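Lab notebook, bench 4. Still working through the backlog of constructs that have no structural model yet. Next entry is a single chain of 144 residues. Request: give me the structure tokens for it.
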Amino acid sequence: MVDTLSYAEFEKACVAQALRRAARHVTRRYEQGLRGVGLTMGQFTTLAALARPQPVAVTVLADQLGMDRTTLTRDLAPLERRGLIQSGHSKKDKRVRTISLTSEGRVLLGKAVPIWRAAQDESHDRLDADGWPALQEALAKLET
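Model written out:
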């Protein structure tokens, strides 16, 4: 006999579906503001992760963002075409590709941060006082 699943049961119980639905709503909230500076939330996250004094290896950045290297490489291309990031090679190992923000990338990130902060405030307001720390803890359990 084939095991069946009703949509009501699926919607009520599926952790992945609930997270994906919430993620889409939250992402939409951030992207409404970021659209004004021409960024998606994913692009903002990448630029913010590159706001460091030294270039970072693509593999290290991918790990920090929780992405695979090939997906990150594809996502970096439009940022590089816009002149927001630049790629190079590690001084220690020329086979290692590194990424850093350009001055244009830093300027755009500076314009985007207040927009991000406003979306952050709205998201935090939607959670009770302990909501975000509790959610962070719960999400961390799912990452292992």
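Notes after review: DSSP finds seven helices and three strands in the chain. The longest strand covers residues 85-89. Flag for follow-up if needed.
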